[in-house]
Amino acid sequence: MIELVIASSVVGGFILALIGYYISRLGLSTVTFSAAHAALAGLAISAILNINSYILPILLTLSLGLVLGTALTRVSTEVMNNLSMMLFTLFNSTALIAIYLSNTVVLATTRVGGLLWGSPLAITVDRFTYMVVLTGIFITYLILFKSRLDAIVFDKRLAEAEGINTKLHSTVVIIFMCFAVVLMLEVVGGFLVFSLIYIPYIASVIITSRADLQLIISNVFGATLTPIGVILSLLYDIPIGSTIALTISSATITTYIIKNSIRYFRNLRSLS
Amino acid sequence: MGVIRVELRDVHVTYQDPERPALKGINLLIGKNKLVVITGPNGSGKTTLLETCLGLLKPFKGIVKLLGTPTTDSKIYSIRKLCSYLPQNFMRGPHESYTVKQVITMGLLSIKNIPNTLTNEDITKVKNIAKLLGIDGLLNEPIGKLSGGQQQRVFLARTLIREPLILLLDEPFSSIDPDGREEITELINDYVREKDATALIVSHIVDKGLEKVADAVLTLSNGELISILGDPY
Q1: What pLDDT is attached to residue A104?
Q2: Could you tell me what percent of chain B has a pLDDT over 90?
Q3: Interface predicted TM-score of the whole assembly (ipTM), two decimals
Q4: What is the least distance, in Å, from the CA of B110 to any CA of chain A?
Q5: What is the pLDDT of residue B99?
Q6: How does DSSP assign B55-108, residue by residue?
Q7: Does the CB of B114 have a partner CB in chain A at under 8 Å?
Q8: Could A161 and B95 be called an inter-chain contact, meaning their C-beta atoms sit closer than 8 Å?
Q9: Residue A106: which pLDDT band, with cuts at 50, 70 and 90?
Q10: Which of B110, B151, B165 to mutate to test the interface with A (most CBs of A within 10 A)?
């Protein structure tokens, strides 16, 4: 069981960081908030109805991904952010009401615990297999279309002018993100799953200014710090999602402090 | 009857306010082996015209055809692969992480079929075009660390490496010094003549060098095409 939990956290941390790199660079971070909470609402309703925990979250988060993806080229970034945050609030409140309305027996289950702060018990062989398959499909997509995605990331309007369907590729990335979020939601918890998407990217930006290295570093961050968070959570018996998020955030802040200290001392040395 | 590369028939474009159209009733035919300069004061609709030709902006009235295909057609993505665009707002901040080489190859890879990787021939092409524009020593530098003039040369390299049938250049000399301006005008003109291409150059200043090589100079004012000097078709 422990091997499965660690392996899943490596794969989950890697795929969320990989997709997160493109989501962050495409300026779609707010879409992640709403997608995570759409999945959370779907999962909460599934818990009340005692139905399969994948179908409703996937349906809700995919519908949201498609709606926001369709709107991408029609509205400004500001309108997109406002729309995403409004949907985030809507789904978050739906999720909380669904949890509140559920009876105490349901509330006591690990399923609802996983919903809010994550649970290693949510990791099953099935879930791990889905994660591996999703990772494989996304890497294949990247092998085929990385140059297109890079062009969009660099300049969306220029990419569109050069014959790249920017809306299609951005929507595809959003859909991958939706699936990844649904798969990791019960492991990390609905309130923190999106932190695995954007924090590794932030860390990579702190470390290097080169795009190709940022992609590698954010994946290394996600794939190493997620299992470290899981191990710490199991060792100290604290919520898994919060521990992973805290581990990644602490590592990022530490990186920032080290990087700036090095720069400060280098400047001091050059002055003397 | 020559080959029509760009065709606009009674084209009207608006942004927000339908009462104040950015382009009003533009009729224009542009042929091959033509270098056409579009000029006019700020806000006259020069950039709007260029973006409308590419189908980035949709007219609320009229027809725009690029290489014979309406810009509203789903095939427009394939047609755009035969064109190159240099945007007016090209400047990147110091945090931009892509290198000069990556920026130039993005333009090349987007016209290739997938899976697309760089061949040795492509790498040679990148080096040659960079040398031609005097940026061969900067290929591994992040573009954000370059000056405005150097960045503009990188974007020009990206447009030319695609070997397009149509070049759409929005203020391509805005950050280039006077000597460089002459050199780049010559480079674009040579490209048009050698490849039988078409170039639409937006420039609010039409200097002697540009005037000498241009087949036509179009002047826009308040969204209207008020004069056509020369023959764009």
Answers
A1: 58
A2: 71
A3: 0.92
A4: 6
A5: 92
A6: TSS--SEEEEEETTEETTSTTHHHHHTTEEEE-S-----TT---BHHHHHHHHH
A7: yes
A8: no
A9: low
A10: B110
